[in-house]
Amino acid sequence: MFLSVTWATALLTGVFSALLAQRLCFPYFWKDLFYLLKVIRYGALLEFYKRTKIVTVLDRFVQQAQRIPDKTFLIFEGATYTYRQIEERSNKVAQVFEQQGTVRKGDTVAMLMSNEPDFVSVWFGLSKLGCAVAFLNTNIKSRSLLHCFNACGAKLLVVGADLLDTLQDILPNLHEDNISVWAMKNEISHPGVHSLLDKLENASPEPIPAERRSTDSLKNATLYIFTSGTTGLPKAAVITHLQSLKAAGGFWAYGGKSEDVIYTPLPLYHSAASLVGIGGTIELGATCVLKKKFSASQFWNDCRKFDVTIFQYIGELCRYLCNQPKGENEKDHKVYMGVGNGLRQDVWKEFHQRFGEIRMCELYGSTEGNLCFMNHIGKIGAVGRSNFFYKLLFKYDLVKYDLLREELVRDEQGFCQRVKKGEMGLLLSRISSQSPFFGYAGSKQLTENKLLRNVFVKGDAYFNTGDLMVEDEENFISFKDRVGDTFRWKGENVATTEVAEILGLADFIQEVNVYGVEVPGHEGRAGMAAIIVRPECEFDGKKLFECVFAHLPAYARPFFIRIQESMEMTSTFKQQKFRLVKSGFNPSTISDPLFFLDYTEKSYIPLTDSIYESIKAGQRKL
User: Which parts of the sequence belong to the AMP-dependent synthetase/ligase domain (predicted)?
Assistant: First the structure.
């Protein structure tokens, strides 16, 4: 008897000691384990899809429409749309284009539409015909828009009723290229443009045979999503069925349920809203509240009105919410989770104080990238978390990068050098069968430019994310900055070379160097351009304003202009940005003439100390 009691006491003591040691030495063990098991489980499902009957996100939607036909799928401007209604509406879209004979299986078609239920209906309807669909950014202008058609090879365009007039100047070019244009209207006054809404009214809701949308590989392209890059003009990132399925598992991996109501105020032409938002809603069999455009003043009222439980965000969105006047019922809502990226530490903390302990789930990953991090722990400031098992599945490294020279640091053998824990390095992700990189449509050189070869050994290949990251001693990963010619502002990537080309249209500008600068209280970097004025000319603020206003979307227009006598170059004859970025836009510390984009004056006006202080204090809005 005494012996058994002794053994029981020893066993309990051992278990208690093990749990205590785990709590002290491995505090995230169980959360890591459960998250990893979810990742493995979802990965096994994808392998099943690949090796047996191939299932796509569209197939999952059709299945859900059969399983829960009367459940609300979308809520838009107060109106509800069930899974059955969107299924039948998308069938009608497919039937119209099938009867018209305008597209065949394997064709690429383009969409230029704002957030609305018909965005999803047209997307799915075209996909049911076996087409790859290209989402066009609604902000891009004529020159870039034409480039997008050339990049993805689209021969048909569906445009929203509210965006048809923006095509006025390029419709002749589209017709010359034999691109068929369809508008979501009943009647059309534009020559050569077909109406679609009237035809949908009389179309059959019967489904197109499933064989039409079938694919023989999950690695085939289903979408093209445009992303800005170092080449300047938008690049068409190839989105495969496999990538779409992976993104659709995001909400589920974070613990989302079928009972959830998901609030999506982000544009559907971006992967966050379409792949993670719509795809994730479908995977859960949940409901999505789709917002035409984000409104900080309406956000919490919408959440209360529609019983929202999960919302999608970018960092700027949360900052806008924190900048709203305080209300009495700010914590009166059912939201328990936010999923997104780019949330600054100070905003994160203030968001919790203002609106409650909402679990903020940071994601990291580019549209075209082959690596994803998820902050499943919820540690403030981290974009993701790694561990021994994660690194077995996904091979990535942080390597030394010389910001001054804007190049990788290599050893005597020419190989890259890994940084130590806690040091900032350039994030590279190894390309393999488990983590493929599908690249961009069009020129193969665009894809090759994102690759780094012979990184650690001869013959290896890595995807260059262009992001500077830090991994701390606890394996939390934090984003620090971007390298190269792209920066983010207002949740959009701004390609500096594209902006420089537009500024170069001004006849008095000889040379341009575009970069982003930090502005107190703002996420990302605001656009700034260092320019050299032609010897025989003078700076013309009004002419430059007219140029950027006519050719660039609002988020890409430089707020600050710095006039220089000569451009500083790197040792490889690239324009030097590092010192310009560091020096910012303070007129009291910069001797060069500075100018500021003033929408009231419709001109670039001299940047004075008082204007600088008003920007710094947040009194002058950017």
Answer: 62-383
Distances 283 to 128, 204, 277, 315 between C-alpha atoms, Å: 18, 27, 10, 25
CA 68-73-74 angle, 5° bins: 165
Q: Is 307 left (phi over 0), alpha (psi -120 to 50) or beta?
A: left
Closest CA to 340 of 358, 324, 327: 358
Cα 245 to Cα 240, 249, 280, 288, 433, distances in angstroms: 9, 7, 9, 18, 16
Q: Is residue 283 part of a domain?
A: no
How far, in Å, CA of 592 to CA of 21, rounded? 60
Q: What is the pLDDT of residues 205-262, one digit of tens each?
A: 999 999 999 999 999 999 999 985 444 678 899 999 999 999 999 999 999 999 999 9
103 and 220 in a single domain? The answer is: yes
Beta bridge partners of 533: 509
Q: What is d(CA 552, CA 556) in angstroms, rounded to the nearest whole number? A: 6
Asked if 545 contacts 559 with a C-beta cutoff of 8 angstroms, the reply is no
Backbone angles phi, psi at 117, to 5 degrees: -60, -35
Q: Is the CB of residue 152 less than 8 Å from the CB of residue 441?
A: yes
Specify whether the CB–CB gap between 212 and 103 falls below 8 A: no
Beta strands in 148-234 (DSSP E): 156-159, 180-183, 193-195, 221-227
Q: pLDDT value at position 522?
A: 87
Tokens of 596: 């500021």
For residue 142, the enclosing domain spans: 87-240
Domain count, the chain: 3
First and final C-alpha spacing in the chain: 78
Same domain, yes or no, for 167 and 230? yes
407 and 506 assigned to the same domain: no
Q: What is the DSSP letter of 145?
A: H
- Residue 540 domain flag: yes
Residue type, 96: V
Task: Tell me the per-residue pLDDT of 476-504, one tens digit each, with 9 for 90 and over.
Answer: 999 887 787 778 888 887 878 788 889 98
Among left, alpha and beta (phi > 0; psi -120 to 50; other), residue 613 is alpha
**CA 373/CA 382 separation, integer angstroms:** 10
Is 306 domain-assigned? no
Query: Does position 526 have pLDDT exceeding 80, yes or no?
Result: yes
> Which of the listed residues 210, 240, 270 is the one where a domain comes to its end?
240
155-174 pLDDT, tens per residue? 999 999 999 998 988 999 99
Distance from C-alpha of 381 to C-alpha of 406, rounded to nearest angstrom: 26
Q: For the chain, how many residues are written?
A: 622
* Residue at 301 is within a domain: no
Is the CB of residue 483 less than 8 Å from the CB of residue 466?
yes
Domain boundary among 460, 482, 504: 482
Same domain flag for 541 and 430 = no
